[in-house]
Amino acid sequence: MKVLLIAEYENDALRSASIAAAAMAKSVAQATDGTCELLLLGADASAATAHAAQYAPVHVAEHADLSPATADRHAAVIADLVQSQGYDLVVGAATTYGKDTLGRASGLLGGYMASDVVGHEVVDGELLLKRPMFAGSVNATVKLLGGPKVVTVRSSAYDAPAPNDAASPISALDVTPGTARLDVQGVASKSGGRPDVTEASIVVSGGRAWKTSEDFENNVGKLADTVGGAAGSSRVLVDAGITPNELQVGQTGKIVAPDLYLALGISGAVQHLAGMKNSKVIAAINSDKDAPIFLVSDYGLVGDVYELTPQIIEKLAGTCASA
Amino acid sequence: MKILVPTKRVPDPDQRVKPTADGRAIDTDGVSFVPNPFDLIAIEEALRLRENDGSIEVVTVGIGVDDYEKELRTTLAMGADRALLVETDELLDPWNVASALQAVIEREQPDLVLMGKQAVDDDSNQAGQFLAAKLDWPQATFISKIAIADGAATIDRETDAGIESASLKLPAVITVDLRLNEPRYASMLQIMKAKKKPVERIALADLGVTAQPRIEMVGVEVLSSKRDCQMLSSVDELIQKLRDEAQVL
After folding, report:
1. Separation between Cα atoms, residue B25 and residue A320, nearest integer Å
2. Smallest Cα–Cα separation from A206: which of A279, A288, A255, A261?
3. Measured between CA atoms, how close is A166 to chain B, in angstroms?
4. Do A100 and B239 touch (CB under 8 A)?
5. Minimal Cα–Cα distance from B19 to chain A, Å?
6. Which residues contact A243 (CB under 8 A, 6 or more apart)?
7. Cβ A139 vs Cβ B223: under 8 Å
8. Residue-wise DSSP of A141-169
9. Which of A73, A101, A113, A306 to mutate to test the interface with B (most CBs of B within 10 A)?
10. Whether A156 contacts A255, CB under 8 Å
11. Alpha carbon distances (Å) from A92 to A63, A96, A98, A154, A195
12. Cα–Cα distance between A71 and A230 in angstroms, integer?
């Protein structure tokens, strides 16, 4: 298959979610004796090309009108390239950008799309895709009945591939984006300087037990900083305005699979578990010994997070190499 | 102004799902259905927009089997003006849902399509984007805020990077996220009254649409996330276990 990876980047580096998606894209290309190429889109895409070229040949679609990214313009550029160059498979990360833009691109390409892919297999030349349904309570194996196929990949399901020894070629594409129909005024982020929950190897996450933003920040946030990790939260805190929405882990929030997920005062609703149950190690502290979070945890401690979290911070302060 | 709200019936998310005997699909025998929770948020928002602008008509659409009328009646009880049932016995994938909706939109000529960002059964998150692409309309996905004035919508979108503020001209396809609102419950009186509201039925074929499947399920596996949890007695023990046994600190 001729595979095109739509890579997201920030400044001069690819986003880790896109590198994980590259693992899937390259694996399919290899299993089908095909090729894998990368596409970078944006007003300032050149900065990230050197990083991208460590993984596969890179096409750069650079145009002032491609930033800020809007689904209509990006999807049109992607669909045009896929059609003119005859790509069989388009791969992207299952981020909000991927779902928004690749969804629209697939709509232009006939709708052969699978979202949130967590595994794949090529059997007799046919691509079988594994994807979660029903809040992750089942994995379905699906096949797309035609093409060009489009998939979004869950970064937590694939390990980042090693960069190639030699850089691949980079080529510039001449693109003329159409009219933008979404007029973007700006993006407001409240998460501060911490790593994103999807990119950290340790996620410290808080739930219903936390009463105020200050308490969350002084405990969950501070512990995250102590271990050099990210702060996450369950939906209930986002709904209550205690944490910003980009911290939400769950079926409708972000899907994470860090080395350690530390759940502080999270009861463990199925929608939350859908977002973190594939973490390598899960540890939970909750005042209710019957909280469902313990059923999916490796280590559990029953107690008041207000009392225990400062103790952990105190004992770990200055001892974590990654902080 | 007319707002069209597509709705999907999904197995009640509080039930346990199980595969069919051949392991190739989800068994829906004896399962109770509810309107997709995200679609209820879309209906709620349409009703709130109508509260500010009495000229707005809210029309809900369902695509599916005869039984579907029950879930559509729920949308009428909440306050939708009328409902349309596109009848088909086939389970449509997102592409074919978008095709059916496109045909409905040609008949209904709405100014705005407001729908859930995903259905909580297949969790695809595709139909809205497909529909916008097929119609060549502007799209805004995952919105948590909307205001309408002068033929345009001003919205907030929930993205991985934070809240994106934007505007778009109508007609448009807009998909809603969880935090947009808390949908109302219909009272018994409203449910009774809704029985008199019209549910128009039209066969999928009469819309000129033949389902052309894009995706096929070949297997399904129920996942268990259960782990053997070691219950510990102190913070010291927890740190020691995470450090020495799990080696993640």
Report:
1. 47
2. A261
3. 32
4. no
5. 9
6. A206, A213, A216, A231, A233, A237
7. yes
8. EEEESSSSEEEEE-GGGSPPPPPPSSPPP
9. A113
10. yes
11. 20, 11, 6, 9, 21
12. 28
CA distance A202 to B246: 13
CB contact under 8 A, A283 and B219: no
CA atoms A51, A52, A56, A59: torsion sign: negative
- Residue A123 tokens read as 């059997």
**Contact criterion met (CB < 8 Å) for A299 and B16:** no
CB contact under 8 A, B248 and A259: yes
Amino acid letter for position B177: D
The tens-digit pLDDT sequence of chain A (323 residues) is 999 999 999 999 999 999 999 999 999 999 999 999 999 999 998 889 999 999 999 999 999 999 999 999 999 999 999 999 999 999 999 999 999 999 999 999 999 999 999 999 999 999 999 999 998 889 999 999 999 999 999 988 999 999 999 999 999 999 988 888 999 999 987 556 788 898 889 999 999 999 999 999 999 999 999 999 999 999 999 989 999 888 999 987 888 989 999 999 999 998 899 899 989 999 999 999 999 999 999 999 999 999 999 999 999 987 765 54
Provide, as residue numbers in chain B, all residues whose Cβ is less than 8 Å from the Cβ of A245: 144, 158, 162-163, 179
Amino acid at B207: L
User: Which DSSP symbol is given to B68?
Assistant: G
Backbone angles phi, psi at A62, to 5 degrees: -110, 125
Assess whether the previous peptide bond of A177 is cis (omega < 30° from 0): no
> Which B-chain residues 27-86 have CB contacts (< 8 A) with chain A?
none
- The alpha carbon of residue B189 is apart from the nearest alpha carbon of chain A, in Å, by 30
Sign of CA dihedral B61, B63, B69, B71: negative
Q: CA torsion sign, B77 to B83 to B89 to B92? A: negative
B98 touching chain A per CB within 8 A: yes
Interface of B with A in 139-178 (CB under 8 A): 139-142, 144, 157-169, 172, 177-178
Distance CA B40, CA B38 (A): 5
What is the CA angle B68-B70-B71, rounded to 5?
75
